[in-house]
Write a structure and sequence with these properties.
The chain is an alpha+beta fold and about 450 residues long. About 35% of the residues lie in helices and about 20% in strands. The strands form 6 sheets. Strands 2-1-11-10-7-8 form a 6-stranded antiparallel β-sheet, with no helix packed on it. A 5-stranded mixed β-sheet has the order 4-3-5-6-9, with no helix packed on it. A 5-stranded parallel β-sheet has the order 15-18-21-14-22. A hairpin with a 2-residue loop joins strand 5 and strand 6. The longest helix has 23 residues. The chain is globular and about 70 Å long.
């Protein structure tokens, strides 16, 4: 989809909100309002948005963000704690007038009512679609990031569209004619991580029958997305840091350093600040990759976007003019969508392919009623005819196959979990797959 702007000659609307100012004893201030995309970091580290010099304050001490007219403060596992009015807190909502203490530094929280200029009424950025306020306030930031070459971290829950946003930023950048390479850290065993990232020479290890470029070399002149970077083992992170800092890599089994002109974008479903605090992610690597950060909101916080996305997916999957029944859209609107945009797209594809049979393969409550058990045989009969129903839609092979496989995976996961009392570890072991893979199946088929 091309980036679209809703044409409107009226001036931008206003947003009722509050602006918060944090003021310490020296007079230093930090201002934050609802137009900021994502939380701001307070601490002594170089990545902090409000950088303090107090040695009792941690490098990543706490985060602050305006939510529904209140200031949300979250401690990030700091050494000396975060206190509001002298009370130690992990997560608190402030209205203004409180004292906020980080280590030995005490700040006054000041609030004032504000009529903020609402972000321009847009439908999306590149292939990223959404007209909610939560999305529209991201688009100007994404445009500015596309015009730079700085390393970027995209954070968000599974299925929020991190890879789609990364590619949209690449396509809007000066590197658009260069390669766009995606490396998924969860798809490669730790023993092969170095060879995949940096490449290898012939004979470097058993099975290395020829030389192979790593993803840094493959992305030369373009953009490299390192997906799920928080899953990289901390012992290997120093090598990754060196490659990003020096823009050079050395193949496994090789001796020469190879220069690569690459813009690095990292994505993660984890909270990197928490991972640093827990010692699972290097602070220096975090500082290097998070020159800029974007947090994609979950679908449940994107008011009005479910209907917009469902309509868009229906046209993409079923062809121009394909519409979903109003009752389906109503059900979609009240669903929590734990799998976010990916789950919604799967649900739309299921309804287009199966019609009324789609409910047979949608996720039911784990606890079945006697009536449900009594209808089990009839449901199995519907399932047996599912392939025939898919064939009637005359979908392309890849789409038809995906619908059938998704339906099977969902029923299989449900059956194994039911058989093992909902215990993921036992269900995965009985299925003959790794627990992590089983969890991926669960997330995909929610």
């Amino acid at each position: 989809m091309n980036d679209e702007t809703i044409q409107n000659s009226a001036p931008p609307a206003s947003l009722d909100s509050r602006t918060f100012t944090l003021r310490d004893a020296s007079g230093a201030t930090f201002v934050i309002d609802a137009t900021r995309a994502g939380p701001a970091l307070l601490g002594t580290g170089p990545a902090a948005d409000f950088r303090l010099t107090d040695p009792t304050v941690s490098r990543r001490h706490c985060s602050v963000e305006v939510e529904d007219g209140e200031l949300r403060v979250q401690d990030l596992g700091s050494t000396n704690g975060t206190r509001v009015q002298g009370v130690k807190v992990r997560d608190a909502l402030l209205r203004g007038g409180e004292s906020l203490q980080l280590g030995s530094t005490v700040m006054r929280v000041e609030a004032r009512e504000a009529r903020l200029a609402e972000p321009a009424a847009r439908m999306g950025f590149g292939a990223v679609v959404g007209a909610s306020l939560a999305m529209r306030r991201l688009y100007p930031l994404c445009e500015r990031l596309a015009a730079t070459d700085v390393p970027l971290v995209i954070e968000g829950e599974t299925g929020t569209g991190k890879e789609v946003l990364a590619e949209a930023i690449h396509k809007a950048s000066a590197r658009r004619d260069g390669p766009y390479v995606v490396f998924d850290c969860t798809a490669v065993p730790p023993s092969l991580l170095e060879a995949e990232l940096f490449g290898h020479e012939r004979g470097a290890f058993t099975g290395a029958v020829g030389a192979r470029k790593g993803v840094f070399e493959q992305a030369h002149g373009g953009t490299l997305l390192i997906d799920e970077i928080a899953d990289v083992d901390i012992a290997f992170q120093s090598k990754l840091l060196r490659a990003i800092e020096r823009s050079e890599t050395r193949r496994v089994g090789g001796t020469a350093w190879i220069r690569s002109d690459v813009r690095v974008i990292a994505a993660t479903r984890r909270n990197l600040d928490d991972e640093v605090s827990r010692g699972k992610f290097r602070d220096d690597l975090m500082h290097r990759i998070s020159v800029a950060r974007v947090e994609l909101p979950p679908l449940r916080k994107r008011d009005g976007d479910v209907a917009l996305l469902a309509a868009r997916f229906a046209e993409e999957i079923g062809g121009a003019g394909t519409l979903l029944p109003p009752e389906i859209l109503e059900r979609f609107a009240v669903h929590s969508w734990p799998g976010n945009v990916r789950e919604l797209r799967n649900a739309v594809a299921r309804h287009i392919a199966l019609g009324s049979l789609a409910d047979t393969f949608s996720r039911p409550s784990r606890a079945r009623s006697p009536a449900d058990e009594g209808n089990a045989v009839a449901h199995e009969g519907d399932a047996a005819d599912m392939v025939g129903e898919v064939l009637k839609k005359l979908l392309p092979l890849t789409e038809a196959r995906a619908v059938v496989i998704d339906a099977f995976n969902e029923r299989y996961v449900r059956a194994m979990l039911d058989a093992h009392g909902g215990n993921v570890t036992r269900a995965a072991a009985a299925s003959g797959v790794a627990r992590r893979y089983f969890q991926i199946l669960i997330a995909k088929n929610r």
